[in-house]
User: What shape does this take?
Amino acid sequence: MAVRVLLPALALAPLFVLAAALPAAAPAAAKDITAQVTADTDLGQRLTAVCRMYCLGNRARSTLNQVTVVRAGPTAFHVSGRATLINHQTVEPTILFGAEIGGFDLFLYTVTIDATGTLDTPTCNLNVDSVRVLDDRLGLTDVARREEGKVYLVPNCQRLLVGL
Assistant: This one.
């Protein structure tokens, strides 16, 4: 399996690639690192780019819901993440004869992306174990399946995992 360097254009892998390089909790204890990932990485920008490519509606947006890391062995970490792509189209109200009429949601639905991977700290390689798309009204399931089994380099992951 070829190792690929993390590319900004990837649609689903950013959900957890950057999160994988951040510190994990003690063995067998999952650590929620969502706030740290949001503050210290460009994952929010990457999710926004994904939403621009796939989301529908004039108020579409993406949200990073959760990223967790758990030690899986002396040099391995399991990483899991969840993001939502919110598809939202609104029709603005209109003023007619001085009265506001209308204004409603044409559609509002959420597509959830769950991703898991395994980070090998000596090589900084992250293997994408699974990507699952829930309530897929956007046709992302096939894109997600193509990500499974890929390996991404997480630059300088040892620097981020010092002391674990």
